[in-house]
Amino acid sequence: MKLENEKALIRTIAEGNTKSFEVLFYSYYPRLKGFICDLLQSPEEAEDISQDIFTTLWQNRTSLDKIDNISAYLFRIAKNAVYRHIERNMLFKNYQQKQTESTPNVIEDNEIYKYIDAKELELLITIAVERMPPQRQRIYKMSREQGMSNDEIAASLCINKRTVENHLTQALADIRKLLSLILIIFF
């Protein structure tokens, strides 16, 4: 959909036009549902979350005219909805475990990788990184995704090398914390 057409469509939805909303729904629902399904590996949950997103979108339609890029907006909402869904599931499983077990199983930190497949682990790390403060997130991505050294990162961001090291240490601690939570919930 062209940007001009998209903005006009958003404007009419904000005014309460159900036909325009239908057009938006049929344009984005399949892609949004597919995106969520890829993350959760559950078509049923993906459908529920996608429908909830569009229901909320309609309920809050009057504020849509402030959105510049509806596609980016919808996929950001979807990503956040998936994170919340995973967090709720983890909390629920943790609650169930505490109710059914009197003594938790103790598993070594490095054994967690035997139980969580690579895709789930990647999603969990992505969740942890997305929840980091912007500067820590940027430094972590520069280090791990772009392969930059601490000196290169410090020079690029005009900060002290020790600051880079502190951010990376905290980023790894954040990731370990989330993985430990998963360990507690699932085991």
Automatic annotation (TrEMBL):
Domain RNA polymerase sigma factor 70 region 4 type: 128-174
Pfam family, one: Sigma70_r4_2
NCBIfam families for the chain: Sig70_bacteroi1, sigma70-ECF
Record-level GO BP terms: DNA-templated transcription initiation
Family: Belongs to the sigma-70 factor family. ECF subfamily.
SUPFAM superfamilies reported for this sequence: Sigma2 domain of RNA polymerase sigma factors, Sigma3 and sigma4 domains of RNA polymerase sigma factors
Cell inner membrane keyword on record: no
Keywords of the record: Sigma factor, Transcription, Transcription regulation
Protein name: RNA polymerase sigma-70 factor
Boundaries of every RNA polymerase sigma-70 region domain copy: 25-89
GO molecular function terms noted in the UniProt entry: DNA binding; sigma factor activity
